[in-house]
Structures are given as C-alpha cells and as structure tokens.
Specification:
Strand content: 5-15%
Low-confidence stretches: none
Radius of gyration: 21 Å
Distance between the termini: 28 Å
Number of helices: 8
Helix content: 25-40%
Shape: globular
Order of helices and strands: HHHEHHHHHEEE
Structural class: mainly alpha
Mean pLDDT: 83
Length: 183
C-alpha cells in the first residue's frame, strides 16, 4: 500500500512538470530546495487500519482527559458532547436511523483512523503539534468516553489496531453471487 502511494505521488509529480522547449520554463521559479529521500521519509505519516505506520508511543485515559480539557473541549465540549464542533461521544442512534449520530462510537470503523485524524488535524489551530504520546492519550480518552475501552487501558502502537470499534463493519457490504452478505 505504501509503495502504491509513493508510486502515485511520483507519477503525479512527473506528469505535472511542464514540457517546453523554452529553457526559462524548464528552469522553473527557483523556489524552495531539493528534498532528500531522508526528509521525504520523515513525512511518511500514513497510519493504516491494521496499525502499520503507528509511531512508538503510549497514552492513558487520564492523560488524555487532561489534554482534551485543555486543548479540545473549547470546540468539542466537556466530555466530547459537542460545542462549536461536532459531538464526539454520546451518540446512540445508529447510522441506519432517520437521524444518525456520527460520533466516534457509532461512526468510526477503525481506532487507527481516529489516531491518524487527531495527529494530522487536531487541534485545528495547530495540526501535527501533538506528540505521539499525546495523540495516544487523547485517542484513549475518546475511546473511553464512547464506552469502547476501559478507563485503566493504556493504548500504544502494539494494541491500538486491536481495539474493536462498534462500526468496524458498517461501511462494508460483501456481495457473493449477487446477494448481499453480512449483518
């Protein structure tokens, strides 16, 4: 999967280079600098559902609650019940109901995707600012307030992918011989 992503990135970059006989156009605007393979590798932040790509780290529910109250509650409300941003916990209506709740417990299929989203996009005013330990902690707290893990469970790169999300199979429908299979 990583190889496919990298191959597609190289293909997109190669295909977007302007082709012209004019040397001034080929030279480009001379902005930035050449990226080394080591630098490009350090930007490989992909986390996959099976846990591949998770960084080394660990976090507890207690540490995550403190961090959430300091950096997340302003938008998501105390306990994740929603404020200016969506609610993250407390949803009870399934996605099949007339008015579905799209909270972590009812919507997200993989705990690793939640981790990846928090690391890339939160807090909204400072994405990529949380350490791996902080992201594991916030993830643990959010999974706890959704009733998915116990309060004393520590999350890390070894056990996060094994967390069974309630909607793990909610986005998949497997067809065999024209008949829908599954739930």
């Amino acid at each position: 999967m990583k190889m496919i992503c990298r191959t597609l990135l190289v293909l997109v970059l190669v295909c977007t280079v302007p082709v012209s006989a004019d040397p001034a156009i080929k030279k480009g605007p001379e902005l930035g600098q050449v990226v080394t393979p080591e630098q490009a590798g350090s930007w490989d932040w992909n986390v996959y559902p099976d846990g591949e790509g998770l960084p080394v780290g660990r976090g507890t529910v207690a540490a995550g609650q403190l961090l959430f109250e300091q950096q997340c509650a302003f938008c998501h409300g105390i306990g994740g019940v929603g404020a200016s941003a969506d609610e993250l916990a407390g949803g009870e209506a399934s996605l099949k109901s007339e008015v579905p709740d799209k909270t972590i417990g009812t919507y997200w299929p993989y705990s690793t995707t939640l981790f990846d989203f928090i690391r890339r996009a939160m807090p909204m005013n400072a994405p990529f600012s949380l350490s791996p330990d902080q992201v594991y902690a916030v993830t643990a707290y959010l999974l706890y307030i959704n009733g998915i893990i116990k309060e004393d469970q520590e999350l890390n790169q070894e056990n996060l992918a094994a967390v069974a999300m309630p909607n793990r199979n909610g986005f998949l429908q497997i067809y065999e011989f024209g008949e829908a299979q599954g739930k």
